[in-house]
Write a structure and sequence with these properties.
Length: about 210
Amino acid sequence: MASRSSVVSGIGAPGRSWGRMVAMTDPKRGERPASTGPRRADAVANRAKVVAAARTAFAAEGLSVSLDEIARRAGVGAGTVHRHFRTKAELVDAVLAAAVEDLVVAANSYAGSDDPGGALREFLVRLVTEGAAAHELAARLQADAGKVEGSVAELDRALGLLLSRARAAGAVGPDLNERDLAAIVAAAHAAYVHAAGGDRAVMLVLRALD
């Protein structure tokens, strides 16, 4: 993450950005080709199938799922997977980037809400609950943050906008800043993953926004 305080840096162990812990939800995302050159439509479609299958597999079973198994679940040959992703690490990077992009899209969609306070709270619930599902992926990417840095920065900006709108509407305290929000998100995540936690625990922690 960048050196400035990040709104999304609060989930997980110190030093981990939220983007490295996001759940691999909505497997239809991640359909961008690996290169910038022209690609045949079937190649693009096959890559999308691989990323979708990997998102589902990694979310449910962790990174132990092999590339050959992902190929089987995607309905493509193993060679197709290896043409697009030389290593599992490259596939993990693609999965994570797509997942963070999903959250950017969602955060931006909340920015048009006529209830800025409710929009901020609803998105923070999604951020926390989805961010709790990919600790193994986060550990894998701990030393390789650059692959998703741009997407995480976009998510920071989108969350910053939600916070600014909520402050302007008087829905949160006027002195609530990004550092405070990161601390609240971290506390909500800890409550969510606790044995006695869950969705209600998240909502209780988010009362700190009031």
